[in-house]
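__Protein archive entry__

___
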Amino acid sequence: MLRPKLVAFARLQLRDSAAAEDTVQDTLVTALEKHQSFSGRSAFETWVFGILKNKILERFRHDRRYLSWQDDELSDEDSFENLFKENGRWQAASKPTPWGDPDQVLENAAFWRLLDTCLMVLPDNTAQVFTMRELMGLTTQEICEALTLSDANCWVILHRARLRLRACIEKGWLT
């Protein structure tokens, strides 16, 4: 039952089913070849996901040599100026809507399906940076090195991702 989780994670990160399948296959082969090195200090699944994370980073480094990074254009809806009034308070249309009790929301399977859907509709580059940071747990420095981004650009992309995810979740969760 581990393989479907690995494939889902790889698809989300790589945005290419064939690349995800190949990367998971490489991950599983590596896990089999190196199973002797599994020390048991973490769950086996966590260890295999660590291998997958490294395989995904290897793929990014490889692809970086052949593909140029394309940043998403900044839209008016992503601008701080459009979210807040001059006094620093939220614009009425931009004010976040309460999602309910955070613990209950996080335990709700429908919320996680919605989040997955919202991640899939993010622009590829935005989703890639967001998932590297929030799902893979990489630092911004590691992301910048893997994708050859400036620190400032990385933070802007993360900001855009969070704004778009919030808007998507609010449309799907609260309607």
Confidence is low (pLDDT under 50) at residues 68-74. The CA atoms of residues 78 and 160 lie 6 Å apart. Residues 44-66 form the longest helix (23 residues). The chain has two domains: 2-64, 76-174.
